[in-house]
Amino acid sequence: MRKYAWRIYMAIIFAILYIPILTLIVFSFNDSASTADFTGFSLDWYRELFSSAETFTALRNTLILAVLSSLISTVIGTAAAEGIYKMKNKLVRKSVISVTNIPMMNPEIVTGMSMMLFFVAVAGFLRVEYETIGFWAMLIAHVTFCLPYVILSVLPRINELGDSLSEAALDLGCTPLQAFFKVKLPNIMPGVISGMTMAFTLSLDDFVISYFVGSSNFQTLPLLIYSMTKKKVTPDMYALSTLIVFAVFVLLVISNMKKDKNSPKRHGGRKR
Amino acid sequence: MHSIAAAPHIFWAVLFIVLPLLIVLFYAFTDKAGSFSIWNIVALGDYMPIFLTSIELAVIATFICLVIGYPLAYAIARSKPEHQKIFILMLMLPMWTNLLIRTYSIMALLDDGGFVNSVLMKLFGTDEPVLHIIGTKGAVIFGMVYDFLPYMVLPIYTCVSKIDKHMWEAASDLGCSPVKVMTKVILPLSSSGIISGVTMVLVPCISTFYISQKLGGGTFELIGDTIERQFLNGARNIGAAISLVMMILILISLAIMNKFTDADGEDGGIIV
User: Fold this and answer.
1) Burial of A250 from C-beta contacts in 10 A (0-12 / 13-18 / 19+)
2) For chain A, what are the domain ranges?
3) Do A248 and B7 touch (CB under 8 A)?
4) How does residue B262 score in pLDDT terms, banded at 50, 70 and 90?
5) Is B36 helix (H, G, I), strand (E, B) or coil?
6) Is residue B66 within 8 Å of B152, Cβ to Cβ?
7) Which residues on A lie below 8 Å from B214 (Cβ)?
8) Does CATH number 1.10.10.10 belong to domain B14-259?
9) ipTM of the prediction
10) A205-232 mean pLDDT
11) What sign does the CA torsion over B132, B137, B141, B146 have?
């Protein structure tokens, strides 16, 4: 009896979580522009979506940004985690970690706005239009908010691993760099990979910070969605959303199947 | 490797985290001409009602998330391991779907011309929308709960699922009633999950602007909307002042909440 009560409870919550998204998916296949009456099945909205160059530019921009920012933040972040681990002074160590965590703790709107003010100042300093540095501003902003997540997923691995392996490598004649790349890095790789994955997804998904930092000549998918919902919405936004939900679903399933193979039980992470 | 490995990151953090925040501070305490002024801070009194509304809605939404989310996390943690995986996946799909899409999907469902109303109108045979939901505070709260519920459930789930199964048995063997097992054993053991969940929901709720724009129908303003509007209108100084106050409020409440967890800040705060 009790068991059924729990089941019903879970079913209700999941239903509420999924009904809005499912409605969106269903209406993306509607053959009229109505978002309330389903008049018949069609792929018109997908056709319209794919016929717009804007969609593809935004998709390309989003992917370029996500790849670059996840790579850069993984390199800087992994080095930083190693450096933080080696710090002997507790106070320095603590303050570096606190500053690192700021973009994670701060509301996104504050991070986005502070970076926008910063880049406006930089553009003024360089005497160029904001648009000229638009892409770089976006890239730097994305790397900045990804960094704490990379560090937080690598640092525990380094702590766990300890010093003995790299000391052994040093005793056996490795240079410190060799000891890091040949011995330590392979051992902390799962943390590095999960940090990079998280950075990639966060960058793909980010709206608020991009909204403030971004400029008109560099649009990403979330920004495109935002501008689509500003106007009177046609179901091509539904079609785009359906494709995104589907892509997220596929990625989640793949990453979960991988997790089954090289087990440690970890789930997602803090997401904003 | 040496602690010098952290140097690029420290450089990055100072340049792109600390400096932008100092610029916010600068804007908050200057006027348009750039000379020192405390009028932005003084003028904040006018925004008091907006601050209070934002806090009110965010606290209500966080509380509802906790009340709905805790039993859900508990139910997931106590189901069969192979089912747990699926349930977590089902939670993560909406979580990784873009916030704009999730919020918009609610609007598409509940709008006056939305799916629910169109069904109800047919059912009751009227031409008037039956339910006026969009544009009320209730709609905004619903949107917040809907958007951020997974952020509450996941950390609590991680915590509850780590509790040794024998704790339940031990507690009831020693004479605890099921209610007492819950209040004396399970709740205290999952408190760190609760605190991360509350933070992860409260911060984005307080600072949101998209949810209130879409679901509030422009009838009232939250603090995020105000910041966004000030920046759109070029009133950067007052926008910076509001952000500064919001940031300080949030950082203080985070610090207070962190006092209740045993985390040392290194891997606390975020739950993986």
Assistant:
1) exposed
2) 1-42, 54-261
3) no
4) low
5) strand
6) yes
7) 229
8) no
9) 0.85
10) 88
11) positive
pTM beyond 0.90: the answer is no
Q: CB distance A113–B231 less than 8 Å?
A: yes
CA of A209 vs chain B CAs: smallest distance (Å): 12
The closest CB to that of A226, out of B100, B150, B203, belongs to B100
- For residue A180, list chain B residues with Cβ-Cβ distance below 8 A: 1
In chain A, what is the greatest distance between 2 CA atoms, to the nearest angstrom? 75
Neighbouring C-alpha atoms within 13 Å toward the C-beta of B116? 15
Whether residues A176 and B2 touch (CB distance < 8 A) is answered with yes
- Ordered by start, the domain boundaries in chain B are 14-259
Mean pLDDT of the region A260-266: 49
Q: pLDDT tens, B92-150?
A: 888 888 888 888 888 888 887 778 888 888 888 777 777 888 888 999 999 999 999 99
Query: Which of A21, A113, A177 is the closest to B94 by Cβ?
Result: A21
Cα–Cα nearest to B272, from A158, A252, A265, A98: A265
DSSP state of B34: S
Contact B120/A at CB under 8 A? no
Give the Cα separation of A74 and A79 in Å (integer). 8
- Mean pLDDT score, B245-250: 89
> How many residues are recorded in chain B?
272
Report the pLDDT value the prediction gives residue A12, as an integer from 0 to 100.
Answer: 94
Domain A54-261 of CATH type 3.40.50.1980: no
* Most confident option among A43-47, A51-55, A65-69: A65-69
Question: A147: which residues sit within 8 A by CB, 6+ positions away?
Answer: A73, A76, A77, A80, A100, A103, B9, B12, B13
3 state SS of B227: helix
pLDDT at residue B265 above 70?
Answer: no
**Per-residue pLDDT averaged across A68-95, rounded?**
92
**Using CA atoms, how far apart are residues B213 and B187, in angstroms rounded to an integer?**
36
Q: How far is CA A5 from the centre of its chain?
A: 37
Alpha helix ranges (H) inside chain B: 7-13, 19-28, 39-42, 48-77, 81-96, 99-110, 115-124, 137-162, 165-173, 178-180, 187-189, 191-207, 210-215, 223-232, 236-259
**Max avg pLDDT among A35-44, A63-72, A233-242, A253-262:** A63-72
| Distance between A68 CA and the closest CA of chain B, angstroms | 16
- pLDDT score of A121: 92
**Contact flag A151-B7 (C-beta cutoff 8 Å):** no
B139-to-A107, B58, B211 alpha-carbon distances in Å: 22, 13, 9
A151 token code pair: 């560090």
Interface contact B16-A115, CB threshold 8 A: yes
For B56, phi and psi rounded to 5 degrees? -60, -55
Chain B residues 136-165 with a CB less than 8 Å from chain A? 146, 149-151, 154, 157-158
Helix, coil or strand: residue A30: strand
Sort out which chain B residues have CB atoms less than 8 A from A86's CB and list them: 1-3, 5-6
